[in-house]
Structure formats: C-alpha cells, structure tokens
Design goal:
Layout: H1 4-11, H2 16-28, H3 30-38, E1 49-54, E2 59-64, E3 67-68, H4 70-82, E4 86-91, E5 100-103, H5 104-120, E6 128-132, H6 137-149, E7 152-155, H7 162-172, E8 176-180, E9 183-185, E10 188-190, H8 192-200, E11 208-212, E12 226-228, H9 229-239, E13 249-250, E14 254-260, E15 268-273, H10 274-289, E16 296-299, H11 306-318, E17 322-326, H12 337-345, E18 349-352, H13 354-361, H14 366-369, E19 378-382, H15 388-398, E20 405-408, E21 442-445, E22 457-463, E23 473-474, H16 478-486, E24 493-501, E25 507-512, E26 516-519, E27 522-525, H17 526-534, E28 541-549, E29 553-561, H18 569-583, E30 592-596, H19 609-617, H20 633-640
Parallel strand pairs: 4-17, 6-7, 6-8, 7-14, 8-11, 11-12, 16-17, 16-18, 18-19, 19-20, 29-30
Antiparallel strand pairs: 1-2, 3-13, 4-5, 9-10, 14-15, 15-23, 21-22, 22-24, 24-25, 26-27, 28-29
Helix pairs in contact: 2-3, 4-5, 4-11, 5-6, 5-9, 7-8, 10-11, 13-15
Bound molecules: adenosine-5'-monophosphate-propyl ester.
The site of adenosine-5'-monophosphate-propyl ester has 22 residues, from helix 11, strand 20, strand 24 and strand 25.
Family: Belongs to the ATP-dependent AMP-binding enzyme family.
Keywords: Acetylation, ATP-binding, Ligase, Nucleotide-binding
InterPro entries: Ac_CoA_lig, ACAS_N, AMP-bd_C, AMP-bd_C_sf, AMP-binding_CS, AMP-dep_synth/lig_dom, ANL_N_sf
Length: about 650
Amino acid sequence: MTNLRYQFKIMKITSFDQYKQVYKHSVEQPEEFWAGIAETFQWKKKWDKVLEWNFKEPNVKWFQGGKLNITESCLDRHLEKDGDRAAIIWEPNDPKDEHRVLTYKQLHEKVCQFANVLKNNGAKKGDRICIYMPMVPELAIAVLACARIGAIHSVVFGGFSAQSIADRIQDASCNIVITADGSFRGNKEVPLKSIIDDALVQCPTVERTIVLTRTRTPVAMIKGRDVWWEDEIKKVETQGNPSCPAEEMDAEDMLFILYTSGSTGKPKGVVHTCGGYMVYTGYTFKTAFQYEPGEVYFCTADIGWITGHSYIAYGPLTQGATSVMFEGIPTYPSPGRLWEIVEKFKVNILYTAPTAIRSLMSFGDDVVKNKDLSSLTKLGSVGEPINEEAWHWFDEKIGHGNCPIIDTWWQTETGGFMISPIANVTPLKPSFATLPLPGVQPILVDEYGKEIEGNGVNGNLCIKFPWPGMLRTTYGDHERCRTTYFSAYENLYFTGDGCMRDENGYYRITGRVDDVLNVSGHRIGTAEVENAINMHSSVVESAVVGYPHDIKGQGVYAFVVCPNKHEDDELTRKDIVMTVARIIGAIAKPDKIQFVSGLPKTRSGKIMRRILRKVAEGDTSNLGDTSTLLDPAVVDEIKTGAL
Ligand code: PRX
C-alpha cells in the first residue's frame, strides 16, 4: 500500500511537472496508483486484488474482495465534521419560488428515509428500479436510496417517450418505478406520471410506482400499484426508524444501468459497478477541477444523463462538495438565468455544455454585462467538441480571462473524465481536451488497428488499459458489449470517436466516426431515428445523417421515401416529427426532412451515407465516386431538393 503523502499528492496536483511524474507512475505502476486513490474512500472491507482484466471477453474487475456502499463515501463519512455543510443547493424552475438547501446531515436523513420507503414497498438488493423524475432534490435522494439498499437504478431522462421508457423497463425487468406527477421545464409542464402510465401498459414486471408531488397535475393513481411519495414517507416517520444501514456490496456488484445510443439497434444498458465507479468519479472530480472543500460547484446537466450521475450526484458528494442542482433551462425566464444562479449562490466552478454556451452567446453580451460573475474561478465543458468561438466567449465573457476551461472528454461508458486539463496545472489550448488524466492510457489507431505513433497525427481513439470507471457489460447482453467496444481492435477499448494529436501530444476530439449523432450534447443513433420515422404509416424507408447546426452542434437531417404522402408536405413533415417524438422522445425530432423518391444505394443495397452527409452539409460540389450506385440519377434529384 502506498503512503498517505503519496495519496495526497496524486489527488492534489500543483504543477505540470508533477502531473507528468504522476502520469508516468500511473502507467508504470497502475495497480499501486489506483490502490493509492482507492484508499481515500470509505470501504467496509479493503480489496484483496486491485485488478484482473482482459479486453477479449471482456472481463474487467477492480478491487475484488472489497466491500462497500457508495453512499457511505457520499454521505456518512462527512457527517461528523461537515454534517452542516450544504450538499445540494437546489434552484427551482421558477426564480420566484424558494430555493432549497440540503446539508449533508439532511441529505443523509432523507436518503435513509426513502431507502426505508423502498424497503417497505418490497425493494431488495439486486432489484432494478426505474427512475423518471424532474430535476428536484428527490431525484438525487431516490438515486442514493437505491444505492443505499443495493438496488440497481436505471434513470431515464425526462425527455424520453413512453415507448422508450417501456423498452428500458422491459430490458432490465424493473419491478419498481419512481416518478412524479409532472415536471416544470421553462414554461412547459411535462405530465411524467401520465407518460409512465402509458409505458406501464407494456411492463408487467412493474409492481409498484412511487409518485412524488411536484406540479400537482391530476394523475391516475391505480389501487395496489401506485402510491404517493409523501404518504410513504409519513409511514416511515410513524415507524420511527430514521436510519437505514447501508447494504454491504461487493466492489463488482452493479450500481446502476444507464441506457445510451449506439450505431445499431435499440439503446444499450451500460452497466457500472460499485467500487470502481466510486473511486473513478470521486478521483476525476477532485483532480480535474482541483476541488477544494467549501467551493460551490454548479453542473448544469440533468441527472438523467451520465454527466448528472457522475458529476452532480456521486463524484462531488464523495468529495464533500457543495453541488448546485437546477430544475429549469438556461433560457427561462430569460437568457440570463444561468448567470443569475451563479450570482445568487456565488458559484465558484461552473460546468456546462458547448450547446448551452452557443445558445446563450446568441443573445448577445448585454445579458452577461450586468451580472456579477466574480465568484467564478474555474469553468468546465462537456458533451461535444467545443468550437473556438464558444471557447473564447466562455473564457472572456464568463471567466473574464481568469478561469481555466476544463474541457472534459469522456462517455457514458467511461463513467468519468478521461482526457481533460487539470485546473491551473495543464496549459490550455482552445478546443483541445488536452491530455489524459493520470491512470488513462489513450492510443490512436488506423482503420486496421495499427497504432499511429508520434505527434501531429489523426486516428481513431482507443484506450489500451482498463480504468476503474469503465463499463463492465451491457445489461443482459455481454456479447453486445464485446462486439460494440472490444472487437473492432484487438485488446483495445474503442471509443467511437475520431481524434487528432497535435505536435505537443495534445488531444482534440473531432467527433464520432460511427453512425451516432451528437445533438446538443446528447447521443442519438441514426438507426434508432430511422426506425422511428419508418413507423409512420406512409413512409417506405429513410436515412438519417447529421449536419452542422449553429447551436446544437449537429442537427438531424432525414431523407424520407414517402410516395403516398399527404398533398401538403408540411403536414406530413409534422406527422413524421410527431411520430419520432412518440417513439423516442422530443430530443430526437428531425430538424430537416427532405422527401426523396429513392435513396442512393450500392448494387448490394447499402445506403451510401457519405453522399447524404455531403448533401446535408450543403456541400454538393464533390460527391466522390457515384459509379457504384444502383441508380445514379437519384443523386441529382437529392441534390436539387436539398434543404
Ligand atoms: O463524441 C464524444 C462526445 O460525446 C460522446 C459521449 O456521449 P455520452 O456518452 O452521451 O456522454 C456525454 C457526456 C460525457 C463522446 O463519444 N464528447 C463528450 N465530451 C466531449 C465530447 N467530444 C468532444 N469534447 C468533449 N469534451
């Protein structure tokens, strides 16, 4: 085991030279390195073996023999010294409503209480529990309460449709759903419970839904199945047992499932485990932001995505941080809302997405001018490549040139940051995620899997050594995990991202190289959108590609073959958009729909997406070789009709 001085050093990096030393050590002695980090968390029993792995099956096990409950590192261990420190500061959708502060003591109490509610409602260790809730503190409480009793949570983002929820509930055979009557987002109200009711028609495994009151919109409450959150809490209170012992979990037991889109088929359930995920999210949060106790940290993501799991809930809480949670959207009631929140809570670290930055930029600088942003010391970016214009605006107008921008590259599957600057240590370069964090070993390969060495090169980004936060499997289908991530290149984890490494060894992510779109920082599989479009009664077939979008990063462009459509094209377009919203959710709605009489296909029937991408990008000057197409004439028609 490493000594304490060393542990302190690896979490608190003060110079670029020190980063290089720690990085070198992490590659040469990975087990010693990670054991040193893991020592800084709370374990019920330490591990017997740090790491066992192969990327062939894949089989990756961290901290085997270790026993823990992640909520003890997130909550219990802070109680004695920092129980009265704010854990969550919650800002409601409507600024006229009261904000809420939950100290570590209060959060601990509420998590224990709701964990007892779950138990009263039949939840057991290993059960899968679906959570479909607004961004209120009870969402974090529900997540942590599941972890407290060893149930596996599967959070579904509030923007997904009943069908998407049903698919996810069925895939994991969930027996309990936690939801709310509705949610407030800007000036909209989303009827969450009603959407759940539609989903549950297809989900016989669900025995209980627990419904939080938020919007108090009328809801159907079904006898024997649906109960109110508040009533259940009262029962626990009268039972008079406020505490709930933390279930002992093996390091490799599942902590949660989170569904994400790939290039084929339905979204897959990425599985993260208790020990490795705890160590990785806590370590990366502390290291990249160089978080110091007392700093107020605000991540604008939703807990429905991995960013919210790792960097609103688990990571910051393991470090005793004060985390701001925001229910609404950055533009409601005005485009100054985020800056007002920064002002109101004197936020020190602001972690957001390029799409939000670009959207707020478009309202002009006046919105920012009269806001006091002087509390900010560090900024962060996540979800998609940040373009230089947005980087500089963020730097100058928000950070006033004094705040490092921590551009964190990572994925649902990686659990936490992989390539990222370390605040006030790594020299920055706009639009570059810069260098791997200690413990992360990236490699660029060509299409045959051969390593591309040296600097000033481009390739596909892979990782060649395991890290504790990596996915272990895809729920219920390990083979899918193997083929998606570990079969493209032998002995490497393939990220699906293209990447360039500049003359100084700095990494810049250039975007997905597979058929996955990144729309406003959200992953959307083109195949999934096509399947949804094809559900429309008059659609014969379709092809979906991305195109550059000023605010969203990428927009969804659909080429649709629809011979018997309504004579009003616009109406048919709206029907198709509605169909996609119904099947997947509003987040996957196509931005542009071009009706075509056929798709450009090769003689073997494969759609030539390369051509469609060029048309969608508005660059039809050089479409490359089209001679292998079954019907080259189709290309002219597509070019002429481009939107
Ligand atoms: O293409 C990369 C992009 O988002 C993908 C991961 O999406 P998801 O699993 O939804 O997780 C998003 C939050 C971590 C990646 O494959 N991406 C994420 N962060 C960055 C990024 N692209 C460039 N720069 C980033 N900082």
